[in-house]
Amino acid sequence: MIDRRSFLKQMTILAGSATMVQSMPWIGVFNQPAAGKAASDRVRLGVIGMGDRGYHLAQQLQVIRSPRPFTSIPV
Amino acid sequence: MTIEALDLGMHVFCEKAMARTLADTKRMVDARKRTGRILQIGHQRMFNPVYLELMERIKRGEMGAIAQMKAYWHRDSEWRRDVPDGQPELDRRLNWRHYDEYSCGLWTELASHHLQVANWIKGSQPVSVVARGSNLRWTKPSEVNDNVAGIFTFDDGMSFIFDCTNNNDHYGMQIHVTGSKATAEIETNRYFTDEEPVSDAMKEMIDSVMTDTSETIPIGGSTWIPEVRTNYGGNEIVKGYDLDDTTLTMEAFVRFIREGSAPDELVVQGYRATVWALLASEAAKTGNPVTLPDEFRM
């Protein structure tokens, strides 16, 4: 079963492969250290277009594991 | 809106498809380059553990040469929203997906996802597309098709075949990747090696036949057997997962913001998916093969 811990392990393995560099360089971001609690780590988000998909994305933003909870503001 | 936000110094996550025209799509990527901000497009399969694992297998050569990709997306849904009485002018805003000015219908709304996957697997983009479309379901006038099909050809001759209908959802959604050594059905997390694993009992029987220790068994029956799908059920690409790839996509966006940058390839994937959805729509309208103008190649 791939849960979050397994996913991060998968990312670590892929990060060491040439495939990641060539075909999926974006997943390297999951190998960066988790953000701290400094003010500079705060991310402010706004959401434009709160229809079906926008509402769903806003919900996803609220379940992200983050040391600093954030608030999405419908625009 | 995306370009204005980028110009204001904001990072932007924009759902697919990026824009209605090739020019506007390119302007978005140009704005991202000009501002140095992050522009991420909503293609969640780029963060899906199943897709990531399969991509690794493909790049390691486990599937052999990719001979064909085929995808379909079959739905049975009504896109149209009710327009308030006495306000017909709101129809274009509420039902924008039905208007050619704003949407390419199934191409931009659905095919763009599978085009992103096909381009990603090939590590390139098509060289041409032929397509057709028709209108069988919409009960009210619509400028977009509810039934489309297209063939996207890559530079090595490989075809990515896509069809989509909004008339019946029996087959749902799937992406087949056919290699010379294995086949994958990615959406259902299945992987089929070319040589079906043999059980011990079956292996023993085969061995006995091959070593001539079994009696001859007369076989009679039909001379033609339909070449239907094999019964071999395959294996999971990954052993199940309880992660939502959209959540991972949004988490990546937040992480990119904290990093202050994102790889160019992140937006190139979205760009190529959108431009080929737009080109397929044009091909379906004209009935002619369509290629990507050089000024939009990326």
Give the averaged pLDDT of chain A, no decimals. 79
How would you describe the shape of chain B?
A: globular
CATH class of chain B: Alpha Beta
Residue share in helix of chain A: 40-55%
Report the sheet-strand fraction of chain B.
Answer: 15-25%
Low-confidence stretches of chain A: none
The tally of structural domains of chain B comes to 1
Shape of chain A: extended
Mean pLDDT of chain B: 92
Features of this protein?
heterodimer, A: 75 residues, 2 domains, two-stranded parallel ribbon, 2 strands, 40% helix, B: alpha+beta, Dihydrodipicolinate Reductase, domain 2, eight-stranded mixed β-sheet, 8 helices, 34% helix
Task: Write up what this structure looks like.
The complex is a heterodimer of chains A (75) and B (298). Chain A is mainly α. Chain A folds into 2 domains: 1-32, no CATH class; 36-75, no CATH class. Chain A contains 3 helices and 2 strands; from the N terminus they run ααβαβ. Chain A is extended and about 40 Å long. The N and C termini of chain A lie far apart (38 Å). The mean pLDDT of chain A is 79. Chain B is of the alpha+beta class. Chain B has one domain (2-81, 88-296): Dihydrodipicolinate Reductase, domain 2 (2-Layer Sandwich). Chain B is built from 8 helices and 10 strands. In chain B, α2 (22-35) packs antiparallel against α8 (264-286) and α5 crosses α8 (264-286). The mean pLDDT of chain B is 92. Chains A and B meet through α1, α2 and α3 of A and α3 and α7 of B.
Short précis:
Chain A is mainly alpha-helical and 75 residues long.
List the helices and strands and how they pair.
The complex is a heterodimer of chains A (75) and B (298).
Chain A: H1 4-15, H2 18-23, E1 45-47, H3 52-63, E2 72-74
Parallel strand pairs in A: 1-2
Chain B: H1 2-7, E1 12-14, H2 22-35, E2 39-41, H3 49-59, E3 66-74, H4 91-94, H5 106-122, E4 128-134, E5 147-153, E6 159-165, E7 173-179, E8 182-185, E9 190-193, H6 200-210, E10 235-236, H7 245-259, H8 264-286
Parallel strand pairs in B: 1-2, 3-6
Antiparallel strand pairs in B: 3-7, 4-5, 5-6, 7-8, 8-9, 9-10
Helix pairs in contact in B: 2-8, 5-8
